[in-house]
Amino acid sequence: MSNDDTLEPASVMSDEASSVTASVSTSDGSPLDGEYQCLIEGMEDDTEIPLAPSVELELQRTMSEYRIDYQSRLKDSSTALYGQPMPAHEAENLVPTGDGGLIWYATIIPTEFFEDGKLRKGLNRRDFDFEHQEVKPRRPSLPVTSADFFASLTTVDGPNGKRFIFSGVLNGWPALRNFEVMAIEERRSGSTLVPTTVELMSDHIQSMLWRRVWDTTGQTGPPRLPKSHAVYRAKLRGAPWTSQGWSKESPGLAFWYETYPKERLTFGTDMVKILGEEKCTRVHMVSHRYAVQRESPRDRLTYHSICFLEWEHGQYGTVVENAYLNGLGGYKGLCNWYDDKDDPGPTGIYKAMPMEMIQPWMTTRSEIRIMDVKSKSLPELQAYIARYTGCTKRFVDPQYTFSHDVRLTFRSKRQLSQYFINYISRDSTYADLKRNCQTFSADLCAFLAGKRNIPPFHPVSRIEYQPKIHYFLYEFSMYLSHDEKRKRKEQRDRQKSRLSL
Questions:
Q1: CA-to-CA distance for 126 and 129, rounded, in angstroms?
Q2: 3-state SS, one letter per residue, for 74-114
Q3: Are residues 180 and 236 in contact, defined by beta-carbon separation less than 8 angstroms?
Q4: Is 166 helix (H, G, I), strand (E, B) or coil?
Q5: N or C: which end of the chain has fewer CB within 10 A?
Q6: What are the pLDDT digits (tens) for 272-292?
Q7: Distance between CA atoms of residues 405 and 355, nearest Å
Q8: Nearest to residue 133, comparing CAs of 156, 151, 109, 161?
């Protein structure tokens, strides 16, 4: 690495702003990512965006296996699939025992959720179609009736007793198909029902909202609900590989959306097999606030950072960002970097997404998005951003704080994709202070430019920042992931605790 001086980002926190940081921060003292606010506002948008034709064909094929009329499901505004539990040997193969696997929480609602034409108390009105008295598909809280949920379980033998596997299409999310039931929790009286995929609350706060009534460690029988009219949630674990990628065959929570010469989206290690040898020449760091409907003091402190890449051929540019896992697949493919975000119907990137990527967003996990755009140079990108800058548009207060030649010897599209896979596979967690869009952008600029001491854009993100540039370089499969390290540490701590007794 060079010892050259780096461009220092301008300060974005005034004295007045810094004095209110504590009052607008999360439990760990940091401002929430601006993307979270956009996603929350997106939950309030009831506009139905159809799935891509390729995804609909895959769902149609799945339902035809069970002799279910897919077109009739579309007429009922439902692409969920329940009541078709798979044979035990298939369930065991799809969700094997073992550590790892993403954790999801499905909201289990009473089967009769409308009573005398009115929605039962305690349920989120936005999750339901009042005209047809149905559950809406693809909601972040994953609502499912108790009858549908329990009709979709398969019992298999496990090393420590019976295991219970859900199979189907949960709440119409094409990627949410097979899970092991880990626990059932009852919502405490008086608590507010919030999206259960949003894991921003501490375990203590969670315990105040939910009371565990069944789990795999103390089970005395199959999962059950003590009360028929209460609201519950099921803790579900995906197959071990789900924490490493969208498919078992192509690990790596990174995708590349190409728009030239034709549209194509490739994710995981498949990128290394498919992408070309175009060479990257320049890298820039760009930061901005999100335009939201109601900007709070927290929003005014929250900046999103991306890297913009230029190429030797000069035909297009590329935006690279680290953001919430499934933030596009779970947000109808609405992306700020394309004009078609404002068009009716599915966007180009949403149509290009395979079924595996259409699932709810997670705020504790991240993905790397690499997206080719029309802007070929930084001035062209600046012109694009200017067109959409304003409190009612997309961007607020854009900042351009770093630009440099890419000095890597091996810098082709294919080679860059391997670097991205290595980086995200070593640690895909998203933490407001330590691992976020700004820390990733700082790491990537330093790595590509061969420079030291490039800080994240915002002073808050610099407090606990530790560069992870080496994550790009080394084969991820030869290292333990962050999750694996954490589990080993927990095991050692438990062993020490037992020995101390």
A1: 8
A2: HHCCCCCECCCCCCHHHHHHHCCCCCCCCEEEEEEECCCCE
A3: yes
A4: strand
A5: C
A6: 999 999 999 999 999 999 988
A7: 37
A8: 109
CA distance 277 to 416: 10
Predicted local confidence at residue 36, as pLDDT: 54
**pLDDT digit string (tens) for 446-485?**
999 999 999 999 998 999 999 999 999 999 988 878 777 7
Record the pTM: 0.84
CA separation for the pair 141, 195 (Å, rounded): 4
Q: What percent of the chain has pLDDT over 70?
A: 79
d(CA 21, CA 13): 10
pLDDT at 185: 94
State which amino acid sits at residue 206: Q
Q: Which pLDDT score, from 0 to 100, does residue 79 have?
A: 74
CA dist 120 and 129 (Å) reads: 13
Q: Please say whether the beta carbons of 432 and 26 come within 8 A.
A: yes
DSSP 171: G
Q: What b/e sequence results for 204-234 when a residue is b if at least 16 CB atoms lie within 10 Å of its CB, and e otherwise?
A: eeeeebbeebbebeebeeebebeeeebbbbb
Q: How many CA atoms lie within 13 A of 84 on its CB side?
A: 15
**Could you tell me if 226 and 187 are in contact, meaning their C-beta atoms sit under 8 angstroms apart?**
no
Whether the Cβ atoms of residue 453 and residue 300 lie closer than 8 Å to each other: no
For residue 383, CA distances in Å to 130, 172, 306, 378 come to: 44, 39, 16, 9
Question: Cα–Cα–Cα angle for 484, 200, 109, nearest 5°?
Answer: 100
Give per-residue pLDDT as tens, 34-43.
Answer: 555 555 555 4
Given a contact cutoff of 8 angstroms between Cβ atoms, the answer to whether 436 and 322 are in contact is yes
Residue 14 contacts by C-beta under 8 Å, 6 or more apart in sequence? none
Which tokens is 387 given? 């067109």
Question: Can you tell me the distance from the alpha carbon of 38 to that of 324, in angstroms, rounded to the nearest whole number?
Answer: 12
Cα distances (angstroms) measured from residue 407 to each of 124, 445, 477: 52, 11, 26
Note the pLDDT tens digit of each residue in 81-100. 899 999 999 999 999 988 78
